[in-house]
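Re: weekly structure request thread

Next one in the queue (300 aa):
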Amino acid sequence: MGGKIEMTLKHLRIFVEICRQKSVTGAARELYMSQPAVSLALRELEEYYGQQLFERISRKLFITEAGETAYQYASSILELMGEMEQTLRRDTFQKKIRIGASMTMGVYYMPNTIAKAMKQFPDLRIQTQVNSTELLEAALLENELDFCFVEGPVHSEHLAVEMLREEELCIVCHREHPLLQKEHLLLKDLAEENFLLREKNSGTRAVIDSVFLLHNFSVTPLWESTSTVALLQAAAKGIGITIIPQQFLKMEHMEEQVGVLKLSDAYFRRRFHVIHHKKKVLSKEAKEIMRLLEEELKQE
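Done, posted below.
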């Protein structure tokens, strides 16, 4: 660290905004500052830490590895400052928690969990976003969410991951599908089937694709959908076969309307996780909501 430069939260706010806007000009516009003032703050930040935070190529900014690290820390620091303000000024700020949930979690588990949390914390504003696991991960890394409940693999090394539950996915088809009569059914026996699958960036699809890759099995889905219910209904009508969580059959009262294929050589299992940024300090309310969700999962 050097010199006589005094590092302030203003430097961090300017740096984070440059990262988000990917330009000094854009940051200056958003912060209602002059461009030279923003450039000076960035230069002081680089001099203070003795690191180049951006490469400047063809009048464009490209964040360096040091810059990525600085952005993660700066975002967390500013987020914590915001939480401190919110906590210490309860008369003027309503405390809130921002939760993300993947599709299955959002449809079947979150409503009961959030309803219980609202009764337990009547003054807490609980904002919930239901989206794909990939997009929720990105939101956590941008400090747009506090924590998330997701299914499927989690990729970022900056996120803390705790497994809540593991469950099996089942292969669903029309109740009169010929393959229901076949003994010792193998994955290769499904090669000519029409597959009805979740969209590419979903946690469930990631599990399915990983099993296909392991068995060198390739498919081009006939249907792709963000709605598991739509896939289940299509399978029941004989449009193709789908791979979905077992509990969907029970929840949608479809056990008698479809068939379930059992493979001898391949198994589809997914895990539910709670994830948050490793630098995130979770409140007691956040931890209680996690506990309520875990209880909800155990009741299944």
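The CA atoms of residues 196 and 223 lie 5 Å apart. The chain is about 45% helix and 20% strand.
Next request, please.
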